[in-house]
Fold:
Amino acid sequence: MKACKSCRLIVEDYALTCPACQGADLTEKFSGQLVVNDPEKSEIGKKLSVKVPGKYAIKIRR
Ligand SMILES: [Zn+2]
Structure:
């Protein structure tokens, strides 16, 4: 699994770009996972500025 550095979406290892923001900056160095089903209603979704439902990394290591 990899996570997008721009929007934190978690994608499969074979993904080359992030389906949410089209970014190509993916990293395996992330920790924590968070499922956001309804970003508009989720407090934590707002905190992470999530706009698309999906699975997100909580922390990205830089
Ligand atoms: Zn992204």
About this structure: Residues 4, 6-7, 9, 18, 20-21, 23 surround zinc ion (CB under 6 Å). The radius of gyration is 11 Å.
